[in-house]
Write a structure and sequence with these properties.
Blueprint: H1 3-6, E1 7-13, H2 21-34, H3 41-53, E2 58-60, E3 63-64, E4 67-70, E5 77-87, E6 97-106, H4 112-124, H5 127-135, H6 139-153, H7 155-159, H8 162-165, H9 171-181, E7 200-205, H10 211-227, E8 231-237, E9 240-242, H11 247-252, E10 255-260, E11 274-277, H12 279-284, H13 286-295, H14 317-352, H15 368-382, H16 384-397, H17 400-414, H18 431-440, H19 452-474, H20 485-526, H21 530-540, H22 548-569, H23 577-606, H24 613-616, H25 619-627, H26 635-640, H27 642-662, E12 666-667, E13 680-681, H28 683-704
Parallel strand pairs: 1-5, 3-6, 4-6, 7-8, 7-10, 10-11
Antiparallel strand pairs: 2-3, 5-6, 8-9, 12-13
Helix pairs in contact: 2-3, 4-10, 5-6, 10-13, 14-15, 14-16, 14-25, 16-17, 16-19, 17-19, 17-20, 19-20, 20-22, 21-23, 21-27, 22-23, 23-25, 23-27, 23-28, 27-28
């Protein structure tokens, strides 16, 4: 289907003035409604906005291609507008957008919108095409420009239309145009002329698999033509791999460019020079990449088997670690956001029902409705560490690493203490069994053995590389055993080794650290060093966000609440310094835990270039989680960039904790954030402490965090 078959005269508007991204979306949605492409503007817009939340469709160079496929669409169609003055559409290059195409596709239809989207992406890489569209004086001229460039780029589509056949070039000209201008889809068979010998091959892929994938492919092929170096690019888009490189082409080429921000299959390139770059480099530096391949300076790629390989940036150790980490974080994020907000709703419900000051340890589940939300949210939050570890391992070792990583994450989040309640078959244990019982399965008396999300990161990398090692070792096994590798050898051996290392090394070591921290906190409280205690407690809440250090501070806070209750039951006054010290400690704990999500959300607002689009999209949810004392909202940011994020959150939370203690703010509830401020002593100064700490985190992130490349 051609672009001009979907783009009607009444769905094009030129010289439009809009002042925002939302206004531009509304305008284009109205154009679709005008020509009858959609029946419900609100539902269709919801689909457009949802897609934008996953990453802006403004792909740079003044172009945006929003698209949606949902039930509001009655027939596939296009709408287009030019905005001469430009509009801020959250473009990846930060520049105003002045040319916007919006694609609508019916829910039950084919992936026609992806096909059209790929065509548009390839056409729009041509600067002349963009200039002519923007210079069009009327809609008819605009449509003719689309027709002209599409006919030159995709002559095979026009050859199918008999009415256009006589107006187009001869068959020989079409074949020549397809071979030189196309994306390589015109693979000629043996009956035709000899296929071109591609000197440079390329594979392009981006996380969403839409615009950047095709733009990089088009830019590389077009630049190859200018340089006189035939280039063929395979696209790994959302509709699957297209224009796939053949074994013959790989064998005869000078080298391969892998312009990708996600894993692609590279085992087939073993023994050939392979240049790994970001997909954006394929768009903006095509000549440089092609010339580098031809220079002979690109190292030969060596890889056996079909495991996933490293395809981000230059393949350095740092970029590999980052890619694996981000794979885990991106899969963990929905659990953190969904579970955190459900849990916050539980505290809000109990507060509205009057249990803010009297709920005690049951706060958040004092009513059936709040208990429901807390239960569901708690389950979601509980699985986030296994998901993090599982998908880190999956990124390293492909699917065989997933199950092993999940187990490692479960061990990190559950610890060893759960096994301490087992009744041993023989109490007279000795030798190795005694070692296992005493060292590995230490119970609550032996210290906390939960390693939390930091342990989950360790478990993910541990599991991934264990399975990767197993795959290399199993390469030597007979072919007849190939079937039992993924179903028996990898999971059994991988889980065993991961469990041994987590249970006997990582969990106990972190447990020792937590025990020492708890003892230190008790000593500070006894010396009445409340400001110092507030600073330390607040800072600890932001070191590992839900991990063992965070939990050590929180357990201490809830413990002193119990101490305060015992003192009050014994007749001690509420204003007694000992009682107040307990409530001041709990206040410092909670305000410290509220700082990281809010501080990061503020940084996303004031320093957007420091964060990815996906991270900026979590701003609202982080504000909500900050208000609800859901520190885990900051975990994806800390996991993605621990060297910059954790120091900033630590300092901001420590400042908030110290200020809270200095202002003698007290808290009688163990959880709830903003929703339990009715139980806070000196609430105004408590809010000041929270906001100041969050501002410190925000400013520090703006100063030390590096801008991201999207």
């Amino acid at each position: 289907m051609r672009i001009t078959e979907l783009l009607k005269k009444d769905s094009v508007s030129l010289g439009v003035k809009v002042d925002s991204k939302d206004a531009a979306i509304n305008y284009l949605v109205d154009l679709h409604a005008r020509v009858g492409n959609i029946t419900d503007k609100a539902v269709f817009k919801e689909g457009i906005v949802k897609r934008e939340e996953g990453g802006s469709t403004a792909i740079g160079e003044g172009i945006a291609i929003p698209h949606a496929k949902n039930k509001a669409v009655t027939k596939a169609g296009l709408a287009a507008m030019t905005v001469p003055e430009g509009v801020d559409y959250d473009s990846l290059d930060g520049q105003p957008t002045n040319l916007i195409f919006m694609i609508a596709a019916p829910e039950g239809g084919s992936d026609v919108h992806l096909e059209v989207l790929s065509r548009l992406s390839m056409l729009l890489i041509d600067e002349d095409f963009r200039k002519e569209l923007l210079a069009s004086k009327n809609v008819d001229e605009f449509l003719k420009v689309c027709d002209k460039y599409e006919a030159a780029k995709f002559p095979e589509e026009f050859a199918k239309d008999e009415q256009r056949a006589d107006d187009k070039a001869t068959d020989g000209q079409k074949a020549d145009a397809a071979g030189s201008e196309g994306t390589g889809k015109q693979n000629k068979d043996a009956a035709g002329s000899k296929a071109p010998a591609y000197k440079v091959l390329a594979v392009t892929a981006c996380p969403t698999g839409i615009a950047h994938t095709y733009m990089a492919a088009e830019a590389l092929e077009k630049e190859g033509k200018k340089l006189g170096i035939p280039v063929k690019a395979e696209t790994n888009g959302s509709g699957g791999a297209k224009n796939i490189l053949t074994d013959e082409e790989i064998a005869s080429c000078d080298g391969i460019i892998v312009a990708a921000d996600k894993n692609v299959e590279t085992a087939r390139f073993d023994g050939k020079p392979v240049l790994f770059v970001k997909v954006a480099d394929g768009i903006h530096k095509p000549a440089e990449l092609i010339q580098k391949i031809e220079s002979g300076e690109v190292p030969v790629h060596h890889e056996k088997g079909a495991a996933k390989t490293y395809s981000k940036a230059d393949g350095s150790i740092g970029s590999r670690i980052y890619k694996h980490l981000m794979n885990g974080v991106s899969h963990m994020l929905p659990f953190v956001i969904g579970g955190g907000i459900l849990t916050a709703l539980a505290f809000l419900i109990d507060t509205l029902c009057g249990y803010g000051a009297t709920g005690g340890s049951s706060f958040g589940s004092c009513t059936p409705l709040s208990a429901f939300f807390k239960y569901a949210g708690g389950l979601a939050m509980g699985i986030m560490v296994p998901v993090l570890a599982g998908f880190i391992a999956e990124s390293i070792a492909d699917r065989p690493g997933l199950a092993v990583g999940f187990l490692g994450g479960l061990l990190a989040s559950s610890g060893n203490a759960a096994i301490a309640g087992y009744t041993w078959a023989n109490d007279g244990l000795s030798g190795f069994q005694n070692f296992i019982a005493k060292f590995g399965f230490t119970g609550p008396a032996g210290g906390n053995t939960v390693s939390g999300f930091l342990g989950g990161i360790v478990a993910g990398f541990l599991a991934g590389y264990i399975v990767l090692l197993l795959r290399k070792l199993c390469d030597r096994l007979p072919q007849s055993l190939e079937g039992i590798k993924p179903t028996l050898i990898y999971p059994v051996v991988g889980m065993f080794v991961t469990a041994v290392l987590m249970i006997f090394i990582f969990n106990p070591l972190i447990g020792v650290v937590n025990t020492g921290l708890s003892n230190m906190l008790s000593a500070l409280a006894e010396k009445n060093l409340l400001i110092v205690l507030g600073l330390i407690l607040g800072g600890m809440m932001a070191v590992d966000m839900g991990g063992p250090i965070n939990k050590a501070a929180y357990v201490y806070g809830t413990m002193v609440l119990g101490t305060a209750s015992e003192l009050l039951a014994a007749g001690v006054s509420l204003t007694d310094p000992a009682v107040q010290a307990c409530y001041i400690s709990m206040a410092a704990v909670m305000v410290g835990g509220m700082v990281p999500p809010l501080g990061i959300a503020l940084a996303c607002i004031f320093f957007p270039k420091k964060f990815t689009k996906a991270e900026r999209n979590s701003t609202v949810s982080n504000i909500v989680m900050g208000c609800g004392f859901i520190t885990e909202g900051a975990i994806p940011f800390a996991a993605a960039d621990p060297g910059h994020v954790i120091p900033c959150t630590f300092i901001g939370a420590a400042v908030a904790g110290a200020l809270s203690a200095a202002f003698r703010c007290t808290l009688m509830a163990p959880h709830g954030g903003l929703f339990v401020f009715a139980t806070v002593g000196h609430p105004l100064m408590y809010i000041v402490s929270w906001l100041v700490g969050s501002a410190v985190t925000c400013i520090l992130l703006g100063l030390i965090k590096k801008p991201v490349q999207e």
